[in-house]
Amino acid sequence: MMQTISIGNLVGGFRIVREIGRGGMATVYEAVEESLGRAVALKMPLAGGDGAVLERFRREGRVVNTLKELREGLWRRPWLCSCACRG
Question: How confident is the model at residue 18 (pLDDT cuts 50, 70, 90)?
Answer without folding.
Answer: very high
